[in-house]
């Protein structure tokens, strides 16, 4: 049993990566497996520094492939284990993530996005949106929370563990280098004080009981002999996924009720959008924000309602429309015109959004 | 009149009787290795502590061979899954079972790093000098001149390099105070039993063990019984069968 460091509400001024390590401890995480890659390193630095106090476990593996697979090993052994990665590390960790998808392993990973494709930048981007939601050779049976600041990092890291273990779909907290490296005030708390009980983490391998006496041996596999055998399994997963979606979907609307221009953004860009909304409103332009917090599964119904109410929509991202593509598919049939503000691997500021929306008001979108 | 003998197969407790008929090709070496392993686990009474992991390739067909908690993983990834288990749950006797492709090609970084760190597990590489399940391509251990689907005119070491020597490699990097490293062969299952016994004892005491087992693949080798045996003897000349590293005091 790990020792929890936060027993009462504590206000701290931390980097996002530090917040994630504290959150994992608050969630009673027992083991971290990881491999260094910028900009997520301080998650494991902090985790390691705290080990004498937390009495948790850590293994620095030989790469992200093994970080992913050993995390799976830890989870199968019945530990609340997790990992973190970014960029090219996220790419090679897909191997393990797809195994977790197929075998319904409650895999938890914090993704701190950096620029891509390839090595690109170590700083920031929103270009792992599609990869984190749909990476691997599968169907995207994953849950992805996109955070917009340090309190989110704390809240959703804790939540990710419970979501993963409750529904047994790999769960990701998608943030970015800005959030990882930036310092912000944050309130750390004991989840118990918020009525949050951590889900149990039963062992799949070496479960209690003697084989052949109390129970049969466990044989876990991800290989199937027949196409139909596979489809039958995946059809069941889809039913579970759809059922879970209704319970897990989260979103945030900011002044979206009467918005004529609705901005759709996720993660830290949504925070820029909030400042832009205030500025635009001060100028008499009725702008609002729809921020999906779960970007997989997307909160489709509320998003459709918000889009239907608006006269125009603006999609903005630090990527070339990775979220927009996912949303547009779900907005099929609606006729609200939209425009885009995409900056590949670059931060989107409030000023960028204000300027864009001002042009939209002058010249109506026609897409 | 035809009469059948009502003789039950001699199964180890660590073998899963419910798995039914063997999934391996006739003449395959996996069955011999796995059965020997199962008997050794019985002898050491490690059944309740053992966790068995198998790779992709023919080794995956062992996913329900053992009457042990088992996980079938991905190409080359059995080693990290199993050390993930033993790190999280010390006292587990972790066994990572794979072929020469999984051990020495696609999973080589795990072989090297698990050995360097001397992780607490037993890594078994069944070396049959080719990729069996994918149809007989060259593997890192294909012998000089050996014909495979991707070396149809024989392995030319000038072009493809020399055969990889797993046991020698591992012995040179594993911690001598924690490790047992050996190469055995399916030509002598009694000897293999002795090797597995030492390897498992060492892992049960918290150590790292590596056993390479020279094995056979008559289907892809396109050999009959005699040819298979001859090939195995040639392999034993190419890959020295012996103990490479024995932790002091291990018997």
Task: Fill in the CATH topology of the largest domain in chain A.
Answer: Rossmann fold
- Report strand % of chain B: 15-25%
Helix content of chain B: 25-40%
Instruction: Report the CATH C-level class of the largest domain in chain A.
Output: Alpha Beta
Strand percentage of chain A: 15-25%
CATH class of chain B: Alpha Beta
SSE pattern of chain B = HEEHEHHEEEHHEHEHHE
How would you describe this structure to a colleague?
The complex is a heterodimer of chains A (367) and B (251). With 367 residues, chain A is an alpha/beta fold. Chain A has helices at 16-26, 41-49, 51-54, 64-76, 87-92, 94-102, 129-134, 150-167, 177-181, 227-248, 268-282, 300-309, 322-330, 350-362; strands at 10-15, 31-34, 57-60, 81-85, 108-113, 143-146, 171-176, 183-188, 219-220, 251-254, 261-264, 287-292, 294-296, 312-317, 338-342. A seven-stranded mixed β-sheet of chain A has the order 3-2-4-5-7-6-13, with helices on both faces. Chain A has a five-stranded mixed β-sheet with strand order 10-12-11-14-15, sandwiched between helices. In chain A, strands 1-8 form a two-stranded antiparallel ribbon. In chain A, strand 14 (312-317), helix 13 and strand 15 (338-342) form a beta-alpha-beta unit. With 251 residues, chain B is α/β, with parallel strands linked by helices. Chain B has a single domain (24-222, 230-246), classed as Rossmann fold, CATH 3.40.50. Chain B contains nine helices and nine strands. Chain B has helices spanning 30-44, 78-88, 100-104, 108-117, 157-160, 166-173, 189-204, 218-221, 225-238; strands at residues 50-54, 69-72, 93-99, 122-127, 130-131, 137-138, 179-185, 208-214, 243-246. Strand 9 of chain A pairs parallel with strand 2 (69-72) of chain B, so a sheet runs across the interface.
């Amino acid at each position: 049993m790990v020792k929890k460091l936060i027993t009462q509400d504590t206000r701290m001024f931390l980097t996002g990566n530090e917040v994630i390590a504290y959150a994992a401890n608050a969630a009673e995480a027992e083991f971290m497996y990881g491999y260094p890659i910028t900009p997520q390193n301080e998650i494991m630095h902090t985790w390691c520094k705290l080990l004498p106090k937390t009495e948790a476990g850590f293994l620095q593996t030989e790469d992200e492939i093994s970080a992913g697979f050993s995390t799976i090993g830890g989870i199968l052994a019945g530990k609340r284990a997790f990992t973190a990665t970014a960029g090219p590390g996220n790419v090679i960790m897909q191997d393990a993530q797809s195994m977790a998808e197929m075998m319904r392993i409650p895999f938890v990973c914090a993704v701190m996005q950096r620029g891509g494709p390839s090595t690109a930048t170590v700083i920031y981007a929103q270009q792992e949106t599609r990869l984190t939601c749909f990476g691997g050779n599968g169907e995207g049976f994953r849950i992805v929370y996109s955070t917009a600041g340090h309190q989110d990092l704390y809240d959703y890291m804790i939540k990710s563990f419970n979501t993963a273990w409750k529904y047994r779909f790999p769960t990701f907290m998608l943030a970015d280098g800005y959030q990882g490296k930036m310092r912000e005030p944050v309130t750390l708390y004991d989840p118990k004080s918020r009525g949050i009980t951590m889900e149990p983490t039963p062992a799949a391998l070496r479960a209690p009981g003697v084989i052949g006496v109390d129970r049969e041996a466990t044989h876990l596999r991800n290989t199937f002999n027949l196409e139909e055998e596979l489809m039958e399994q995946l059809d069941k997963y889809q039913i579970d996924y759809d059922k879970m979606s209704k319970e897990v979907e989260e979103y945030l609307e900011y002044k979206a009720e009467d918005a004529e221009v609705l901005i759709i953004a996720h993660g830290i860009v949504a925070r820029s959008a909030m400042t832009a909304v205030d500025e635009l409103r001060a100028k008499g332009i009725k702008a609002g924000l729809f921020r999906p917090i779960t970007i997989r599964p997307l909160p489709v119904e509320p998003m459709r309602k918000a889009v239907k109410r608006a006269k125009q929509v603006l999609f903005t991202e630090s990527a070339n429309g990775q979220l927009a593509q996912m949303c547009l598919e779900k907005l099929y049939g609606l006729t609200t015109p939209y425009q885009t503000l995409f900056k590949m691997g670059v931060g989107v500021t409030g000023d960028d959004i204000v300027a864009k929306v001002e042009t939209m008001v002058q010249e109506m979108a026609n897409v | 009149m035809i009469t059948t003998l009502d003789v039950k197969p001699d199964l180890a407790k660590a073998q899963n009787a419910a798995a039914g008929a063997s999934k391996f090709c006739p003449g395959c070496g996996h069955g011999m290795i796995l059965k020997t392993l199962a008997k050794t686990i019985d002898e050491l009474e490690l059944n309740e502590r053992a966790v068995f992991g198998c790779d992709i390739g023919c080794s995956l067909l062992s996913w329900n061979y053992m009457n042990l908690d088992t996980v079938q993983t991905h190409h080359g990834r059995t080693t990290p899954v199993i050390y993930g288990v033993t790190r999280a749950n010390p006292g587990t006797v972790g066994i990572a079972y794979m072929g020469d492709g999984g051990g020495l090609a696609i999973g080589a970084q795990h072989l090297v790093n698990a050995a360097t760190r001397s992780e607490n597990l037993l890594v078994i590489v069944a070396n049959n000098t080719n990729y069996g399940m994918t149809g007989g391509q060259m593997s890192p251990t294909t012998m000089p001149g050996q014909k495979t689907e991707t070396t149809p005119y024989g392995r030319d070491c000038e072009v493809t390099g020399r055969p990889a020597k797993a046991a020698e490699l591992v012995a040179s990097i594993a911690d001598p105070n924690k490790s047992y490293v050996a190469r055995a062969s399916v030509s002598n299952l009694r000897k293999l039993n002795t090797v597995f016994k030492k390897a498992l004892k060492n892992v049960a005491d918290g150590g790292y063990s590596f056993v390479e087992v020279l094995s056979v693949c008559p289907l892809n080798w396109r050999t009959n019984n005699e040819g298979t045996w001859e090939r195995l003897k040639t392999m034993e000349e190419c890959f020295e069968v012996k103990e490479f590293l024995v932790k002091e005091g291990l018997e």
